[in-house]
Design brief:
The protein has one domain: Glycosidases (TIM Barrel), CATH 3.20.20.80. 40% of the residues lie in helices and 16% in strands. It has an 8-stranded parallel β-barrel with strand order 1-2-3-4-5-7-12-14, surrounded by 4 helices. A 3-stranded mixed beta sheet has the order 6-8-9, covered by helices on one side. It has a two-stranded antiparallel sheet with strand order 10-11. A hairpin with a 5-residue loop joins β16 and β17. α9 packs across α12. Bound molecules: 6-O-phosphono-beta-D-galactopyranose. The site of 6-O-phosphono-beta-D-galactopyranose has 15 residues, from loops. This is 6-phospho-beta-glucosidase. Keywords: Glycosidase, Hydrolase.
Length: 461
């Protein structure tokens, strides 16, 4: 073993409720915005394949957890569906949902797989969206009731909680760039939504600590290092502002309890400051996270703004910088994302140097690939060597960071088994395990699944 990881390293993968459970309309589950958006526009991104037609984890969780065990997982991040637990977002809890999540958590623990549980993974209950979603303070309060119910119900067993998954994504998708419901373009609302999300996370941390349970609570952020085109002051400045918008906006309040000054300055200057109630900033200051999940897929390549936007165009972060295509960059052509393995090391180094070396883990990293069936061999196994390379090369950088003192505790792939995607339904596959939708969701372990089994067994490679 050349790359040996720290003892007790967390090997596993991540998934989310909406993307895997299916059963979106049974046992009392309420609708969330994805059920709703799919009904409204089934062909927008989803190719006529909605969240109902997924891997059916709701029914097959035992089989799936057995496969997790088989490929050596010692941990797994799932999420609880708010709309399953509280069909109206607030009010009465759904006993069938309580039973389901107890069963899943018990099954994981019985298989020596530690459950890491996320509380919000893009899936706003429709009833909550109808009163404004994260724009509304009422929804923040309802979220706190929901998460408190989760801590009370499952906190005896679950020792790792995550308030949000990639909270910036619903802001970008829903309020700026048109890929999540309610798909509007309104920077002022985007800021309010972002602010309330951050506040809700701090309030969840506060609610968790008030119960004095013996676990940890964190947040999962997608961090996208912003690399400047050159060391010219204008390029450096552009990259710094891009970083403020897309990384420090959530990272600073979550870990330090403060907001980045350069970002606040812009918001003030443009008249986009959110409504902040008395006491909020203390709540944010006093309730930073114990642990950080880092999702890393790709960096941003940034240069100074070259052309001014049309005066009538709505305000966007991109008023301050342009992206450029770095010559020679490596691409995953399926997803249109750059592959830059060292980015994962740069993030971990930044956390070590500038964020108190907070305890963290890689909570998502992965490679979406279209048409993987063509790699299925005569024995029926998908030979995804490209995914093995992708993981191995990223892990080398994680290993380097760990050996230099980063407090990184684990690596989770996105995702355990092929699942439904918010942006392309079943086109791009990410899993260690394939799911054949034409054969009643038949599972089969890919070559990468057998590979990670060895890595996990040896705690390295
Ligand atoms: C992350 C999300 C996941 C997952 C993943 C892959 O942003 O946390 O839920 O969807 O990206 O992205 P996609 O399915 O869009 O290719």
């Amino acid at each position: 073993v050349t790359y040996k990881f720290p003892d007790g390293f967390w090997w596993g993968s991540a998934a989310s409720a909406t993307q895997t459970e299916g059963a979106s309309d049974v046992d009392g589950k309420g609708k969330n915005i994805w059920d709703h958006w799919y009904e409204l526009e089934p062909n927008r991104f989803f190719d006529g394949v909605g969240p109902e037609k997924t891997s059916q984890f709701y029914y097959k969780y035992k089989e799936d957890i057995a496969l997790m065990k088989q490929i050596g997982h010692n941990s797994f991040r799932m999420s609880i569906s708010w709309a399953r637990l509280f069909p109206e977002g607030t009010g009465d809890i759904n006993p069938k949902a309580v039973e389901f999540y107890h069963n899943v958590i018990d099954e994981l623990i019985a298989n020596d797989i530690e459950p890491f549980v996320g509380l919000f993974h893009f899936d706003m209950p429709l009833a909550m969206q109808e009163i404004g979603g994260w724009e509304s303070r009422e929804v923040v309060d309802a979220y706190v009731r929901y998460v408190t119910a989760c801590f009370e119900e499952f906190g005896g067993k679950v020792k790792k909680w995550f308030t949000h998954n990639e909270p910036i994504v619903p802001v970008e998708g829903g309020y700026l760039y048109d890929f999540h419901y309610p798909n509007i373009v309104d920077f002022k609302k985007a800021v309010q939504v972002a602010y309330h999300t951050i506040l809700s996370s701090a309030k969840a941390v506060e609610a968790y600590r008030a119960l004095s349970q013996d676990g940890q609570i964190g947040i999962v952020l997608n961090l996208t290092p912003s690399y400047p085109r050159s060391q010219n002051p204008a390029d450096l400045k552009a990259a710094r502002i891009c970083d403020a918008f897309f990384n420090r906006s959530f990272l600073d309040p979550s870990v330090k309890g403060t907001f980045p000054e350069d970002l606040v300055e812009i918001l003030k200057e443009k008249g986009f400051m959110p409504a902040i109630a008395k006491g909020d900033l203390e709540t944010i200051k006093n309730n930073t996270v114990d642990i950080l999940g880092v999702n890393y897929y790709q960096p941003r390549r940034v240069k100074a703004k070259e052309s001014m936007p049309h005066p009538d165009s709505p305000f966007m972060p991109e008023f301050y910088f342009d992206y450029y295509e770095m010559p020679g960059r490596k691409m995953n052509r399926h997803r249109g994302w750059e592959i830059y393995e060292k980015g994962i090391y740069d993030i971990l180094s930044n956390l070590k140097e500038n964020y108190g070396n907070i305890e963290c883990f890689i909570s998502e990293n992965g490679m979406g690939v279209e048409g993987e069936e063509k790699f299925r061999n005569a024995e029926g196994m998908i030979e995804d060597d490209y995914r093995i390379d992708f993981i191995r090369e990223h892990l080398k950088w994680v290993h380097k960071a760990a050996s230099e003192g980063s407090n990184v505790k684990g690596y989770h792939l996105w995702t355990f088994m092929d699942n439904w995607s918010w942006s392309n339904a079943y086109k791009n596959r990410y899993g260690f395990v394939s799911v054949n939708l034409d054969k009643d969701g038949e599972r089969s372990i890919k070559k990468s699944g057998y590979w990670i089994q060895e890595v996990s067994k040896n705690n390295g490679f």
